[in-house]
Design goal:
Blueprint lengths: L7 H10 L1 H8 L4 H13 L3 H14 L4 H18 L2 H16 L5 H17 L3 H18 L2 H17 L3 H17 L5 H17 L3 H19 L4 H16 L3 H18 L5 H17 L2 H19 L15
């Protein structure tokens, strides 16, 4: 999940009329408001538009140092959403370099570390992802940031579950839930992330009913925040469909998967690794329903797409020394 920033002007504008409705007024807006708008674009699933605006801000050198670090971080998120992992890595590195010189901005530095860890998860490099996110967690603990601790623990739980380290993941997830109860500035994205992790844990433990319940909770939170047409929502439908398939509810699962794939197809590139991964999950459900030919075709296409994407990944990504100052 993407991180929340307290940018009130944009948050209110988006709530009333969406990002596109406020852009003309923002053309002459202060740099910080334009940065907030670019971040909102990323959250709306529009990374290409965000990249144009972020690059213009950075080229103009109109932001102060903390905002410059944030701009590079958001640029990293945007490039990551596009599947441009090399440029994403470069942007995250620049963000870390800025925050290295700003010891008073430890929470922002921790956020950049945690987001950079997400890139390593996407590229299948879990060891550096763990190191970055553990470092982020330590910094959040140092400044007593409960919201950051909740997010970092949730993210570390996800890495543990992907490695089938159940006990470790459970401990992280329990800590995430505890810190969420102490935090005052978590939003629906944050709460949905924790609920979705709980769904994953239940799925790994073989409890399909609880898994589906937690995924449905996450879906409700995401729909409340973003509406129906958002990649987060599409992805959660896919996760819910997979859980319902595990419970033997194939008709329901197929409908949920189809709905999720439709949303993903309208809100992200069909060459995005997440879209391709969702196609593979959908193909398995289709195969279980007896649609073997369609399932095989979809799976083969998605697997070929993932192979092509893997060739563009930043396989030589290295963790900046700034990450461990």
């Amino acid at each position: 999940m993407r991180r929340k920033s307290v940018w009130i002007v944009i948050a209110l504008a988006v709530a009333v009329g969406g990002v596109s409705s406020v852009w003309p007024a923002l053309a002459q807006a202060p740099p910080d408001e334009r940065l907030a708008h670019a971040y909102a674009l990323v959250r709306e699933g529009r990374p290409a538009d965000a990249i144009v605006q972020l690059q213009a801000l950075l080229d103009a050198k109109s932001l102060d140092a903390p905002a410059t670090g944030k701009a590079w971080n958001v640029l990293g998120l945007a490039y990551e959403d596009q599947g441009n992992y090399l440029e994403s890595q470069r942007a995250y590195e620049r963000s870390l370099q800025v925050y290295e010189a700003l010891p008073e901005r430890l929470a922002d530095y921790a956020m950049a570390l945690d987001d950079f860890g997400g890139l390593y998860v996407m590229t299948g490099q879990l060891e550096p992802a763990v190191r970055l996110r553990q470092k982020a967690l330590g910094l959040y603990e140092k400044v007593g940031n409960h919201a950051g601790m909740a997010r970092a623990n949730s993210d570390l739980a996800g890495i543990a579950f992907s490695r089938r380290k159940m006990n470790e993941g459970r401990r992280y997830l329990e800590r995430a839930s505890k810190e969420a109860g102490l935090a005052t500035d978590l939003d629906e994205d944050d709460l949905a992330s924790i609920a979705s992790m709980q769904g994953w844990l239940a799925q790994l433990e073989g409890d399909a009913a609880v898994s589906a319940s937690r995924y449905r909770q996450a879906l409700d939170l995401l729909r409340k925040r973003h509406g129906e047409e958002h990649p987060f929502v599409g992805w959660e439908y896919v996760l819910l469909g997979r859980a319902d398939a595990d419970a033997g509810e194939l008709t329901t699962a197929t409908a949920e998967m189809k709905r999720g794939m439709g949303i993903l197809g309208r809100t992200m590139s069909e060459q995005n690794p997440k879209y391709l991964t969702a196609e593979i999950a959908y193909s398995r459900v289709l195969d279980a329903t007896g649609a073997h030919v369609e399932a095989a075709r979809m799976k083969a296409k998605a697997e070929q797409g993932l192979k092509e994407v893997s060739s563009r990944r930043c396989s030589n990504c290295t963790v900046s020394a700034a990450a461990f100052r």
